[in-house]
Write a structure and sequence with these properties.
Elements lengths: L1 H37 L4 H6 L5 E6 L3 E10 L3 E6 L2 E6 L5 E3 L19 H11 L2 E6 L4 E9 L3 E6 L4 E5 L3 E7 L2
Antiparallel strand pairs: 1-2, 1-5, 2-3, 3-4, 4-10, 6-7, 6-10, 7-8, 8-9
C-alpha cells in the first residue's frame, strides 16, 4: 500500500501548489484592481474626507497656508485660519499636507457639496465682503467681489477701479473676519 500513500502524497502536494499559485494570482489581481480603482480618486474626494481636519495647502506665491478645512466643492475648498478664510481653487494647489488617507466618492456628496467655485465667489459678492485676491504671478488686489461670470470674477478695488480676474489666474481669495 505504499504506492497509494505516495500517490496521495503527490496529489496533496499538487493541490498545495495549485492553491499557492491561485493565491499568488489572486493577490496580483487584487493589487492591480486597487491600483486601477485609485486611479479614479480625485483630489477633491480626498479633501472631502479631510473636512474638519487641520491641513496645510501649498500655493504659488503664497507658500503654505495652514488652517481647518471646512468646505470642499468640486473645484475649490475653504480653509479657515486665524481670523481669516481662504477660498482656494483646487487647480492652484501644488501640495496638501495632513489630508486623510481616505476619500469620499463624489457620488456620495450632497448637492451643496457639488457647488462649484462660482457659488463660493457669489457668497463673497452677496456679503459685500472686503477681500484680497491673490493671482498668478504674485499680484494682490484688495477688492470687493461684485459679480461672478462664467470664467471670471468682476471686482472693485478700494480706489474704485474695476478689475476682472479669470478663474484660471486665481490662486486664492482671502477674507478677514470683522
Amino acid at each position: 500500500m505504499s504506492w497509494e500513500h505516495d500517490l496521495f502524497a503527490l496529489f496533496d502536494d499538487l493541490e498545495g501548489q495549485a492553491a499557492a499559485a491561485w493565491e499568488a494570482d489572486r493577490a496580483a489581481e487584487l493589487a492591480d484592481r486597487a491600483r486601477a480603482e485609485y486611479g479614479t480618486v480625485t483630489l477633491a474626494s480626498r479633501l472631502m474626507a479631510s473636512r474638519g481636519r487641520d491641513v496645510a495647502l501649498d500655493l504659488p506665491h503664497l507658500g503654505r497656508l495652514e488652517g481647518r478645512l471646512s468646505r470642499v466643492g468640486e473645484e475649490w475648498c475653504l480653509l479657515r485660519g486665524r481670523g481669516q478664510e481662504w477660498v482656494v481653487p483646487l487647480a492652484a494647489v501644488s501640495g496638501v499636507h495632513g489630508a486623510s488617507a481616505r476619500s469620499v466618492a463624489e457620488v456620495a456628496w450632497s448637492p451643496v457639496d457639488r457647488l462649484g467655485l462660482r457659488a463660493a465667489l457669489r457668497r463673497l459678492a452677496d456679503a459685500e465682503a472686503r477681500c484680497v485676491l491673490h493671482v498668478a504671478g504674485g499680484a494682490r488686489h484688495e477688492t470687493y467681489v461684485e459679480r461672478v461670470g462664467a470664467d471670471f470674477l468682476q471686482a472693485r478695488d478700494v480706489s474704485g477701479s474695476e478689475v476682472l480676474v479669470p478663474y484660471t489666474a486665481l490662486v486664492a481669495v482671502q477674507s478677514r473676519d470683522g
